[in-house]
């Protein structure tokens, strides 16, 4: 179950991060880049959880 949750959270964070990067405000764009990276990390975590059976 953790696998699915991590992947969904990752997708949401990536989408929000990408949207923030379209802003005219440099601070918001930087925040968006960080959020997108966080989303990718969450997706990787979900893939690892799936491969290892939620043991991490």
The helix content is over 70%
How much of the sequence is in beta strands?
under 5%
Distance between the termini: 12 Å
Low-confidence stretches: none
Q: What class do helices, strands and sheet pairing give?
A: mainly alpha
DSSP E strands, number: 0
Radius of gyration, in angstroms, nearest whole number: 13 Å
Largest sheet: none
Q: What's the overall average pLDDT, rounded?
A: 90
| Elements, N to C (H/E) | HH
Features:
56 residues; mainly alpha; 2 helices
Provide the fold topology:
Layout: H1 2-20, H2 26-52
Helix pairs in contact: 1-2
Describe what you observe in this structure.
With 56 residues, this protein is an all-alpha fold. The chain has helices spanning 2-20, 26-52. It is built from two helices and no strands.
Give a brief outline of the structure.
By secondary structure, the chain is an all-alpha fold. Helix content is 82%, strand content 0%. Helix 1 runs antiparallel to helix 2 (26-52).
């Amino acid at each position: 179950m953790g696998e699915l949750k991590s992947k969904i959270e990752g997708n949401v964070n990536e989408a929000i991060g990408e949207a923030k990067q379209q802003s005219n405000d440099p601070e918001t764009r930087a925040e968006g880049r960080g959020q997108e990276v966080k989303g990718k990390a969450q997706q990787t975590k979900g893939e690892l959880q799936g491969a290892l059976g939620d043991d991490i």
